[in-house]
Structure formats: structure tokens, C-alpha cells
Write a structure and sequence with these properties.
single chain; 243 residues; alpha+beta; four-stranded antiparallel sheet; 8 helices; 43% helix
Length: 243
């Protein structure tokens, strides 16, 4: 979930129950299936697949599971998934982007519309909120006292990064989406331990909710969206998302 600190969002995503982790495996598996269909099963020549394998490993998906998904996705009986983006507003005009990977457009679209309607929001047309977000690659490295901030910033910028932010617990390195893997690999080769490297959508502005009912509804909307196995990512511009 997008907010001021990408790492806080990642920590929240990783603090999952076993049931929620199983859903993460399912979502990543669908994304891998699409990447294999579009670019082939070899990660050396398929950068999207390489990125998703890294994402799967960061979510503790076992290697044998990843290999099984790739093999199954290459077969004639592979499920035909498609990627769909939905845009809308949560309570008090919170901008929300939902990315889904599904084998049933009708099922997923109906569910997403239901969540928005039930929790004080409304689903809009494509483009209604996406102009408020900028796509960026975000690399996170732990601020453990061993990493020299100035040297890391220098190395990151030389590797092609656009921006560098020292947060309370981590360093966040921002790249163009297409440069994410190259910058990550360059920093890994220099010995830096990467906590996370993912593409994100960064809001240009944030909205704070003060009404307790709106806060409750927004939390429930995000919870339902995150629980849905068809939904792979949710982005929003809610300022106080940790409430």
C-alpha cells in the first residue's frame, strides 16, 4: 500500500498469517503464469519473469513452487489469466488503484465493485485517479549501521537510480520502473543486501481522514481488496493508513 514510507508498507504486507501467505503465493503464481505466456519460461531472457521470481522469493515462496508454476504455465493446459486495472474512490475521495490478475473478468469486476459500494466508495472509469500517481521502482536496504549512507547514495546514483531517501530504519532508492532490476542487480553485485525491490505507484498528494466512520470503512475496503485472490496490488493516497 502506497504511503510516505515504502518500507512501512512492505513490513505491513509481510506481517501475514499463514492463510494470507497462501494468498500471496496464489497471486504471485498468476503473475508468473502471464509472464511465461508473454515472454517465455527462461528468466535470463524474460525480465518480467526474473522480476517476479525475485518477488516470489522475497515473499518466501519455495524454489520448487516457483519451478512448478513456470513448468505448468508453459504447458498446453495452462490457465489463461489476464491483467485488469480498476480505479475509483474510497471514503472522502481517497484515490484507489486496484490491479488484478484473473481468469474471470466478470467475477473480479463484480467483487471489486461490491467492495467499493459496501465501504463508502465508488468505482470510476480508467484514468479517473491514475494521473495522481507516478510509477517508480523502489529498492529498500536496511539501515543497520554497517552501510555507509554517502557511499550507498553514490553507488545507487551511479547505477542509474533517480532518488535516494534515508528513512528511520531503511534506505529507499527510487528508479524508473524499467531500471529497477538493473539498479538492484548492480547494488547486489557491490555486496548490498536488498530487503525489497518492487515497482510501486507513488501518490503526488495525500488525503487525511478524520471521521472515524470513514477510517473504519477505508480499512475494511483495503482489507477486502487485499484478501481477494484475484487482486495483486492496491495503491492509494490515504495519509494515515496505519490507523
Amino acid at each position: 500500500m502506497s504511503g510516505h514510507s515504502k518500507w512501512n508498507n512492505i513490513k505491513n504486507k509481510k506481517a501475514k498469517t499463514d492463510a494470507a501467505k497462501a494468498k500471496v503465493f496464489t497471486k504471485v503464481g498468476k503473475e508468473i503464469a502471464i509472464a511465461v505466456r508473454e515472454g517465455g519460461p527462461d528468466p535470463a531472457s524474460n525480465s518480467k519473469l526474473r522480476e517476479l521470481i525475485s518477488k516470489a522469493k522475497s515473499n518466501n515462496v519455495p524454489n520448487e513452487n516457483i519451478e512448478r508454476i513456470i513448468k505448468k504455465s508453459s504447458g498446453a493446459d495452462a490457465v489463461d489469466y489476464e491483467e485488469i486495472t480498476y480505479e475509483g474512490y474510497g471514503p472522502s475521495g481517497i484515490a484507489v488503484i486496484v490491479e488484478a490478475t484473473t481468469d474471470s473478468r466478470n467475477r473480479t469486476g463484480g467483487n471489486v465493485r461490491h467492495y467499493f459500494d459496501k465501504y463508502g466508495g465508488n468505482l470510476g472509469a480508467i484514468g479517473c485517479v491514475s494521473f495522481m500517481f507516478e510509477s517508480k521502482g523502489v529498492i529498500v536496504i536496511e539501515k543497520d549501521g554497517k552501510v555507509n549512507e554517502d557511499k550507498l547514495m553514490e553507488d545507487a546514483l551511479e547505477a542509474g537510480a533517480e532518488d535516494f531517501v534515508a528513512d528511520e530504519d531503511v534506505f529507499e532508492i527510487y528508479t524508473l520502473p524499467e531500471d529497477l532490476l538493473a539498479v538492484r542487480d548492480a547494488l547486489s553485485a557491490l555486496g548490498y543486501e536488498i530487503l525489497s525491490a518492487e515497482n510501486d505507484k507513488i501518490p503526488s498528494n495525500y488525503v487525511t481522514l478524520t471521521d472515524e466512520d470513514d477510517i473504519k470503512k477505508m480499512n475494511l475496503l483495503l482489507e477486502k481488496l487485499e484478501e481477494d485472490e484475484d487482486i495483486s496490488e492496491v495503491y492509494h493516497n490515504w495519509e494515515n493508513a496505519d490507523e
